[in-house]
User: Fold this.
Amino acid sequence: MTGRFAAASAVRSVGDGRYAGEVAEGWDLAGVANGGYLTSMAARALSERTGRPDPVTVTTHFLAPARPGPVTIDTDVVRAGRRFATARATLADDTRPLLTVLGTFGELPSGTDDGERLVVDGAPPPLPDPDECFLMDPANASVPAIFSKVEIRLHPDDAGFAAGSPPGAARMRGWFRLPDGEELTSTALLLVVDAFPPTVFNAALPVAWTPTVELTTHVRARPAPGWLAASFRSRFVTDGFLEADGEVWDGTGRLVAQSRQLALVPRG
Amino acid sequence: MTGRFAAASAVRSVGDGRYAGEVAEGWDLAGVANGGYLTSMAARALSERTGRPDPVTVTTHFLAPARPGPVTIDTDVVRAGRRFATARATLADDTRPLLTVLGTFGELPSGTDDGERLVVDGAPPPLPDPDECFLMDPANASVPAIFSKVEIRLHPDDAGFAAGSPPGAARMRGWFRLPDGEELTSTALLLVVDAFPPTVFNAALPVAWTPTVELTTHVRARPAPGWLAASFRSRFVTDGFLEADGEVWDGTGRLVAQSRQLALVPRG
Assistant:
């Protein structure tokens, strides 16, 4: 892999199931590194540890905010079977664990394999062409720097929050790609599902931030090259929690990932 | 706790973070113990280990079929914070690990607390009265014995599979309670989300069984006493996998749990 995401999520084995990585500058929101980016780094360690190329289902529990700097990832394999391997990782800085991951890894079909689609009760979100969507443009001082690491173009109907006029529905839809034509691997989908602005930004709620407790992603297939279409929705903001469900589709019209996260809704 | 489910899912500490339990007879389908039941057992060990009463989000990866008999559950705490504790467990028989769990535990609101409902974009499934629903009756030879451990009454529209005429939609809705008035704890919700017949039974697919790879449950609140209304749906049966999304509502109309599982769809 080459490219900025590949470099920023790289890990190297230092023996005894431990990997070393570095939380890169610029992958943060308000100083806290993006959870999908950190999950990708842990998943790369687990993929290497298990010798399986693709994440199939990966769950992360977030424990403490991660800042730029060196981290270690301790891994252990719970079971290595013929088709899948299940393993765990805890990513820590020099003082404490920051996140812990449980994942099953294997080998997924690629975008050029037709696959088998027995039930498809859903479709990619209806998006205008990328050029007609709202670019999360880091040249704009109100847009966090992470949007120079990923290219996101939102459905115009879902960009209201950026102009201070949220449309009301807890929804976020748009296009995603990595800059400079960097290849989208199956592991990069773990970033995609956490890279969009939060759904609640578009719901007119007295909620400023929603720290993620847990994020689970199912990867169904390796994405075909090109833009990905993603949609996120929160249906239940209750009892101090919300879920955000995501779907990611590649340009061939294939569902390549589903995600769900549980986040806290601190009372306003 | 008293009652059959409480007894069947009981664990006792044997020191060094290890718990002992027993997979009880009758909690199986075709000899393989139910995954929600096993997850509940592991969660009880984690709840005791962390000293937190309620599961908040629990993910299980299933490794091998569990049969009746003694098991051990090895636990470790990744982080114990003020509000939540995150911990891991692996449940094994005397030869191999059967499932591994990652969960965050805390204290949830109870059914009598009004809570805060900022967004509710969904509702309990429209179900006829329990007496007018289809009882999964273990007195019927075609109904597995596990349905004597749980009482499930299906929406008549979703019982077609039992008569050999699946309606076509990959959906399952119905009522749930534990027999003999046994109390439904927050931990019991981890059973509820995996106790219904599979959604694909109602889709006319060339699929006989769908082994679960991973099951994640978010528990939002402790359920009020009485019947629970649950609905399950699979929207994407593609590339050899399916997801099944569940919602569980208590009698006060509160969403008490959401679940998603990833299962294999062996080619027919």
Summary: The first strand of chain A starts at residue 11 and ends at 15. Chain A is about 10% helix and 40% strand. Chain A touches chain B through 56 residues (CB under 8 Å). Residues 40 and 188 of chain A are 7 Å apart (CA to CA).
